[in-house]
Amino acid sequence: MDPLDLLAEATNALVRSVDGLDADALAAPSALPGWSRGHVVAHVALNAEGLTRALAGVVEGSDVPQYDSSAARAADIEELAGAPEDELRARFLASCTRLADATAALPEGHLDATVRRTASGRRTFSARSVPGRRLVEVAVHHVDLDVGHRRTDWSVATAEALVDSLALDLGALGPLTLQGLDAERTWRLGGTDGPLVQGTTANLAWWLTGRGADGLATDSPSLPDVPAR
Q: pTM here?
């Protein structure tokens, strides 16, 4: 499936879950330490808003980062997480719609433009990679929301797209060879030599987000630590 189609499917599923959360459920803990479900929803909303403004900058020929700074990002999440239920839900829904419109409308000639994550940071990514990166945020944080959605609910196509996107930033982990047993796919990070890591594609994607290596097998004595994201 096209990444935009996978993203639309994952976003619709997350929207349905968020629609089912009342104020008490949003205030309850998520699966992420120190974050309520409201924090997760706020983060996903702000992620979409940041990507939307960055893509608008690309089209206008302006250098607009996704976030002003890491500190501003964290403060904005805290503020929005504490907003009234209706405001948080409306902001989340609007952000998803606007990003979908922005990614679908991005001209072909702008796909290779570079986007900075923060104004002063060194981390960059291409406009072309935005749908895949957003899919990671939507699919993974849907699981983090802890409302019954699990990584085992991801389609194989979604899990493949997640590994594709995550591998873009994790070449420094290599050399590693990842083999998705259910997808008959192989990914090589950082070169052709190195340990082999096997498992379902969903378990590989989950590990690449820094959330544990459950269900994976390797011919190495140990696996490298993956930073959480």
A: 0.96
